Every structure is written in structure tokens, then in C-alpha cells.
Amino acid sequence: MLFLLSPAKALDYDTPLPADLPHTQPLFVPEATALIEVLRQQTPAQIASLMKLSDALASLNVARYQAWRPRFGPRQARQAVLAFNGDVYEGLQARTLTASQLDWLQQHLCILSGLYGVLRPLDGMRPYRLEMGTALATERGRNLYQFWGPRIADHLNQRLAGQPAPIVVNLASQEYFKAVDRWVLQARVIDCVFEVRQGGAFKVVGVHAKRARGLMMRYAAQHRIASPQRLQGFDLEGYAFAPAASTPDRLVFRRSA
User: Fold this and answer.
1) How many domains does the chain divide into?
2) pLDDT per residue of the chain (257 residues) written in tens, 0 to 9
3) Which of 9, 54, 202, 242 could form a disulfide with 252 if both were Cys (CB 3.0 to 4.6 A apart)?
4) What is the 3-state secondary structure (H, E, C) of the chain?
């Protein structure tokens, strides 16, 4: 069973980390290199327009593209699960997981990425900005979905090969999960939905749902979840499984506030 998460816009390359923390090389370095070469041809003004960034952020990312290298050590990069710093990763709190739990994450979590395709949690990552929904034209097409094509789904199939009932638990956003070609993917997909009560009704609230995705990933690592049934025990920060609102492939979790 594999879990999918989206990356985060916010990055943290400042918080000190243990010197002996392992890191691995990303799997799609040739593809990332090809995208960087395209991005290096863009001016700050073009990047600002393409990604809807301020002039300052556009200039920062142009500098990042110029500094990017296909191979790097721990001094030039940071483990992906520790570099991302948005709501999802505040829920996951990977820095507080044990070495054994981080190793479990490495085997079971795939972080989808516009630049890297798929990142394992301990893959070394240089700072970058390239969202999956960016309409960046390349030789493979007019956007990143066409650039990645079936590659991400093929990778997931390889990771799941040999499992009697391959399952992907989708904790990613629609923008990122769209990069997984469902016609190619040979696995059952289970979506997790997180709702909170507001105004007398349960609904998905973006900021809470993002944090809950990270909490679910933390719960899975702590309990080494290996079946959809065990996901139903998720109870962090007041969430509880809502069987009446769920289906076998859409698990709904709710909390009162």
C-alpha cells in the first residue's frame, strides 16, 4: 500500500537537523534536469506571469533554477519531508518521528512534485517552485501533466508490483493527483476526506483538510498501517471515521469543531 501527498509552497531550509539523518537521491533526476533547462530560459518577468508570483519571488526562483544541480549532497539539499513546511507537513511533523517511522515513510509515502515527479521522504531536494498545474510548455506538451504523462503511474505500479491487492491511498490535492494517469495505474485508489462541522453541517475546509492529510500520514507511520480497514481507526485531533458517509473507496472522517 502506498500513500500520496502533495508538496508545499512553503519551505524550511533553516531549522537545524541531525547530522546523521540519511538522505537519498531523487528517482527522476533526468526529467527534473530537463525541466530546469526549460525554466532557465525564462526571465523573471516570464516566471512571474507563468506562476503568478510577485517580482521578488520570481527573481528568487530564477536564481534557484540557475543554482540547481542534478547531483548534490546533504549540504546543498534537504530531505523532502523535512523541507516542505505547509499545513500538511505541520500535521505530519516528520521531525518528531522516530528513525524507524521515517524509514517506514520512505517505503510507503510518495510526494508528488511538479519538478521531481515523485519524491520519497528522504530524497534530497534543492529549494524550488514549480506547481503541477503550471502551464509550462516543453517538448512533451503544453503543461506538466503532458510532460509527466504515464511516468508517475508507471512508477507507482513498479512500487506496488508483487502485492496481491495493490492500493494507493490518495491524500494529495486534485491538482497533483491529476498527474497520476488512472488508465495506467493498476491499483485500487482510496480517497480520504476530512470534514469539520460548520454552521450545523459537515464540510471540507481547506486549511483543516490539509492539516488532516498530514495527521493521517503521521498516524499511518506510527501504526504501520497496511490495510484500508486500519485507516478507519484514525483519531488524531478529534477526528473519527464516519461510516454512514463513507464508501469502500472514499473514507470520510469528521470532527465537531
Assistant:
1) 1
2) 999 999 999 999 998 888 788 999 999 999 999 999 999 999 999 999 999 999 999 999 999 999 998 887 777 789 999 999 999 999 999 999 999 999 999 999 999 999 999 999 999 999 999 999 999 999 999 999 999 999 999 999 999 998 889 999 999 999 999 999 999 999 999 999 999 998 889 999 999 999 999 999 999 999 999 999 999 999 999 999 999 999 999 999 999 87
3) 242
4) CEEEECCCCCECCCCCCCCCCCCECCCCHHHHHHHHHHHCCCCHHHHHHHHCCCHHHHHHHHHHHHHCCCCCCCCCCEEHHHHECCHHHHHHCHHHCCHHHHHHHHHHEEEEECCCEEECCCEEECCCCCCCCCCCCECCECCHHHHHCCHHHHHHHHHHCCCCCCEEEECCCHHHHCCCCCCCCCCEEEEEEEEEEECCEEECCHHHHHHHHHHHHHHHHHHCCCCHHHHCCCCHHHCEECHHHCECCEEEEEECC
